[in-house]
Design goal:
single chain, 147 residues, Pnp Oxidase, Chain A, 28% helix, 4 helices, alpha+beta
């Protein structure tokens, strides 16, 4: 469980989607806008503020593990939440009615390639995002708590 003061996203549509997803137990606001592509809610601790932060990410799941793909639309820099996960590997995932605890780790090499390919199969734009940036898009993979 990640306790503390919650700091909602400064982006209205992200804040609204997370609020609706959580309130409905994942039955509403569970896709990326009108694309039909499923999302998950990821809860973490802010590395600077220490506050609870939440983001919605594409649902890239395989055998109970999830890829958290730090694409930021192919921007030259990593998203802010990347730094949160580098500082604290404890995250909560909500993929349906109830959130559950996991830890995450940054993957590289062949394992990263495999997870990136899984991500592209869910959300083809990831390939475009990677092509437009010089950075290798970081990928974290969750492990069930206690694994």
């Amino acid at each position: 469980m990640i306790d503390g003061e919650y700091e909602p996203s400064t982006w209205d549509w992200v804040r609204d989607q997370i609020e609706t997803y959580e309130r409905s137990g994942g039955t509403e606001a569970n896709t990326l806008r009108d694309t039909g592509i499923p999302i998950i809610i990821v809860t973490m601790r802010g590395h600077k503020s220490g506050k609870v932060r939440k983001i919605a990410l594409m649902r890239v799941e395989h055998e109970g593990r999830y890829a958290l793909i730090a694409s930021k639309g192919g921007a030259p820099e990593n998203p802010g939440w990347y730094h949160n996960l580098m500082a604290d590997d404890e995250v909560m995932i909500q993929d349906g009615p109830e959130p559950f605890g996991t830890t995450c780790r940054l993957v590289s090499g062949d394992e990263r390639t495999q997870w990136f390919d899984r991500g592209v199969s869910v959300f083809p734009n990831y390939a475009e995002y990677q092509a437009k940036t010089d950075r290798e898009i970081p990928i974290f993979v969750t492990e069930p708590a206690g694994a």
